[in-house]
Write a sequence for this structure.
């Protein structure tokens, strides 16, 4: 959203009071913010008691900036906390997941007792394949129950999962496997999307050509497609897991034991292996899930419509909800698998009460029209959430009116792969909400908006979002690269965590997140770096140079626009470049993922550069967003940028 538009919304000071339906939360927690801010560390220690510890921690925070330890002398097992303890408490018959397949009518219901057995069998199978405490295991799976079972089985053994989104390419998978030296991979033969099967195993086979250390691959049969099989390395899930004992006695691990790695894009071409440890991560997942969604485990049906390949899936499809013992919906397909009203059918059929999703999906559903939700009974809904990118007030209001019947509060939750769990969000019974604002840091979290010098800005002013003190689920670092961790997050404003986001405090002091201020793009809530896409483009033999920017897009938040100069010869004059552009788009999809395909590729004979040879991305962003060009005086050849602007106008090729 443009600054001017945001200002207009702020001027209206549209605000919704805390919802009376959430009075229980308000009555029970009148002073939650005050209590937490009086002594955040002590407050988090109290929250840690939501977990079942084998050894209860006496240590709280040990802070050696930027390295934190939380609850370090405590021991626990993550999988026990998610599953076994509910069964032991007599809640084994409660449904953990109503799984809904891509095809209508395909469902599976899994209780906590059944989940316990599935996880035990998978843990026994992984042990048999040689997985030991501390080993890294790559998970490259569709949204099927076995994906959750696999994650829980891995952490049960004290091993470390690295879930790679199944939409990523073989190259992206192999670089992630190599970076953290994963020796095991769990995958499926294929996945279903809108009724058709798409293979996954070939990408694993291709990736493993460059990963000689991988000893075993466990493969779920999902689509029954033909697969290439490497004897001795590949093992079918149904042959290996299903014959195992369904009891597994778990060990406990120290709170600071590494639990998982999640790769995410930074400002360079190489994704960062963000890793999280056990006790602090689980404490904050459990606490935030409980407070932000004000869950009622006895009656709620919660649906986090995300993929387990992203941090949202980790924290709010797997760990946070399971620790709280709620019933969830897990959905395999796309929003329009089986029709544009598929989501609303799922809500109606499963009586979903809490829906949590990304603004880009809300905008897509909104574009499809009001009739689809109107045709379904959505009265079971009582709370709506959003995550992943700034939500524009128009989409927020549509979500409120058409999905939440002007009755359900909306929690706009800001957080990151690095923060592990929600950091900024309204609390439905306690805080007011405003369309487009994430409002306030959660209890126990310190957030500020600062100017270039690191000084707090006043109300009504904008700046950079920083986190002012350590929190339990903060990443413990970048796998294998502590220096990069310091440099990326802790050097811009000494002593403070630099999130990479712009933010603004409105006149009431409430927080509005304004998007990334670095070279990280946010495409449909997926994080990609401009450099990553540039590297993919210059890796193509026809490309001489490439500059990539994120331009604002009505549906996807941002979209990728690439400016490319080709290696040309004299014979190329007058050639039809349409096929070249399409080939380049497919090339990026193959090297990274289809989500990284540029919306537009502009072929240009030159790129705007400063006298020191730096590409002026700022100007290209102005061009891509049709804005008045900023200062061009530092360019070697100021005419280049005007020429590109002209090309942009005449060249609309490459759009889907
Ligand atoms: O720019 C912010 C945006 O998503 C980035 C984090 O991306 P990722 O690590 O992939 O995690 C996404 C899911 C937690 C942030 O730096 N972002 C996330 N939530 C919001 C948001 N921007 C605005 N409002 C949000 N609620």
């Amino acid at each position: 959203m443009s600054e001017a538009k945001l200002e207009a919304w702020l001027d209206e000071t549209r605000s919704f009071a805390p919802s009376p339906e959430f009075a229980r939360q308000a009555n029970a927690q009148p002073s939650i913010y005050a209590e937490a801010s009086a002594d955040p560390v002590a407050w988090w220690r109290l929250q840690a008691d939501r977990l079942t510890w084998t050894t209860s921690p006496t240590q709280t925070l040990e802070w050696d900036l930027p390295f934190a330890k939380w609850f370090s002398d405590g021991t626990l097992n993550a999988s026990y906390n998610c599953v076994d303890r509910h069964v032991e408490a007599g809640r084994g018959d409660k449904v953990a997941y109503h799984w809904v397949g891509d095809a209508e009518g395909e469902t599976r219901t899994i209780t906590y007792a059944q989940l316990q057995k599935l996880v035990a069998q998978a843990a026994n199978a992984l042990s048999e394949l040689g997985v030991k405490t501390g080993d890294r295991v790559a998970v490259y799976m569709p949204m099927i129950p076995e994906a959750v079972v696999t994650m829980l089985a891995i952490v049960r053994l004290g091993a470390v999962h690295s879930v790679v989104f199944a939409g990523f390419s073989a190259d992206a998978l192999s670089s992630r496997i190599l970076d953290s030296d994963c020796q095991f991979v769990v995958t499926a033969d294929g996945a279903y999307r809108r009724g058709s099967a798409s293979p996954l195993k070939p990408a694993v086979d291709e990736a493993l050509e460059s990963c000689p250390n991988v000893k075993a691959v466990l493969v779920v049969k999902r689509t029954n497609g033909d697969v290439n099989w490497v004897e001795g390395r590949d093992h079918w899930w149904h042959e290996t897991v299903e014959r195992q004992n369904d009891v597994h006695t778990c060990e406990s691990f120290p709170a600071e034991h590494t639990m998982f790695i999640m790769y995410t894009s930074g400002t360079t071409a190489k994704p960062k292996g963000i890793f999280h440890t056990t006790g602090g991560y689980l404490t904050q997942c459990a606490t935030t899930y409980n407070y932000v969604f004000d869950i009622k485990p006895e009656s709620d049906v919660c649906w986090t419509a995300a993929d387990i390949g992203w941090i949202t899936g980790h924290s709010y499809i797997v760990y946070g909800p399971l620790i709280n013992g709620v019933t969830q919906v897990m959905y395999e397909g796309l929003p329009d698998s089986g029709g544009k009203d598929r989501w609303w059918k799922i809500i109606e059929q499963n009586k979903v009460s809490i829906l949590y999703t990304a603004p880009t999906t809300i905008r897509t559903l909104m574009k499809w029209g009001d009739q689809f939700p109107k045709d379904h009974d959505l009265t079971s809904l009582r709370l709506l959430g959003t995550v992943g990118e700034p939500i524009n007030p128009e989409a927020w209001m549509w979500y409120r009116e058409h999905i939440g019947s002007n009755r359900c509060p909306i929690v706009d939750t800001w957080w990151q792969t690095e923060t592990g769990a929600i950091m900024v969000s309204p609390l439905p019974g306690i805080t007011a909400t405003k369309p487009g604002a994430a409002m306030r840091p959660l209890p126990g979290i310190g957030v500020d908006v600062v100017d270039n010098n690191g000084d707090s800005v006043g109300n009504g002013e904008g700046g950079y979002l920083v986190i002012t003190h350590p929190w339990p689920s903060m990443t413990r670092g970048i796998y294998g690269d502590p220096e990069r961790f310091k440099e990326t997050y802790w050097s811009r404003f000494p002593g403070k965590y630099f999130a990479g986001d712009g933010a603004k405090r409105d006149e009431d002091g409430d927080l509005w997140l304004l998007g990334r201020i670095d070279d990280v793009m946010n495409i449909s809530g997926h994080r990609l770096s401009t450099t990553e896409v540039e590297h993919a483009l210059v890796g193509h033999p026809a490309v001489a140079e490439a500059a990539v920017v994120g331009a604002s897009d009505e549906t996807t938040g941002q979209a990728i626009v690439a400016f490319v100069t080709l290696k040309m010869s004299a014979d190329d004059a007058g050639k039809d470049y349409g096929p070249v552009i399409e080939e380049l788009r497919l090339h990026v999809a193959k090297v990274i993922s289809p989500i990284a395909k540029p919306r537009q590729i502009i072929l240009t004979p030159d790129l705007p550069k400063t006298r020191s040879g730096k590409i002026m991305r700022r100007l290209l962003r102005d061009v891509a967003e049709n804005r008045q060009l900023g200062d061009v005086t530092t360019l070697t050849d100021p005419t280049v940028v005007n020429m590109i602007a002209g090309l942009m106008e005449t060249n609309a090729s490459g759009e889907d």
